[in-house]
Amino acid sequence: EPGNEAHGGYAFCGLATGILSGTENQLDLDRLLYWACSRQKGFEGGFQGRTNKLVDGCYSFWQGALFPLLHKIRPFSMPPSEEISVGPHTSPFEETLHESSWLCNQRALQDYLLLCCQPIGGGLCDKPPKGSDYYHTCYALNGISAMQHNPGDTPPTVVGKAGNLVLPIDPLHGIRTEKSKRAKEYFSKLQHPCAENK
Predict the structure, then answer these.
(1) Any idea where the Prenyltransferase alpha-alpha toroid domain is (predicted)?
(2) Catalytic residue among 56, 71, 112, 117
(3) Residue 126 annotated in active site
(4) Which of 21, 23, 61, 120 has the most CB atoms around its CB within 10 Å?
(5) 37, 98, 127, 133: which one is catalytic?
(6) Active site residue 53
(7) More confidently predicted of 22 and 81
(8) Catalytic site residue 58?
(9) For residue 77, what are the CA distances in angstroms to 17, 81, 89, 103, 170?
(10) pLDDT for the residue 152
(11) Residue 129: cis peptide before it, omega within 30 degrees of 0
């Protein structure tokens, strides 16, 4: 709503609704991308849901999934004159910035989730010292998947051992890609309920 504070969950839902309804190009995608990039915190590596708030594991999906969705709408490509050459003064983020990755620091987000959001008892949490719960486990895992699986045929970006790779998700629906495809196939065969009333 105009005039209210921007929020990561609402931003995701707004973009997803735009995509599902075919109206995504009516949104100010440049401002959304700028805002989403600004929500990843440099020290922690995680995303905050609103300005002046702490990072939270669940926003790894709510904010992190914006990047694959925006990339599908308007693929990022860096003109050859602007390509970043890696040197002694290149930041770790700049080293990972490439058209075959998202416009956020995918490794830093995975570091935050894997190092800070895994309590000893299992699951994933908001932030230390909080305990894990189903909500944060679900959205943190979805965020890890969104950050690992790059555009096109680019190999995954995985922090740590190869066993840390999680299955790909459909970032629009927040479920595994194969489940999303099956759901679309199933529902595409059904007659739309409003079509009967015409």
Answers:
(1) 1-173
(2) 56
(3) yes
(4) 61
(5) 133
(6) yes
(7) 22
(8) yes
(9) 25, 12, 23, 10, 22
(10) 85
(11) yes
